[in-house]
Amino acid sequence: MSLHALLARLLRGAVAVSALVLLVAGTFYLVQHGQEPADFSSFQPVSPELRTPAAIVAAVGRGDAAALAQCGLLLVMVTPLVRESTAAGWFLRRRDLLFAGIGALIAGVLLLSLLLAR
To answer: What does pTM read for this prediction?
Structure first.
């Protein structure tokens, strides 16, 4: 399979899974909070328990719809990292060290940006 076909499948799958998770999360959120009045008079930041991946996964286990939405967004954010890691592995298997190194460097920068984000 060519690299383009592999990455196209990977990206289509990742976006489809993320969209499905977000659709389910939106439905659950409306079931849980659909009758509450919306208050747009002041900005409400995301709660502290939904700011780290471990806390998000724990909250999803408790059935928190907002946490499931955060999980869907994390899947979208991780997609480029998976893409670059896959491309780097593909090039490495073909012994193209230059492109494997460039892909690994880009994947490292993406991983660092996810880990250091506030």
So the answer is: 0.78
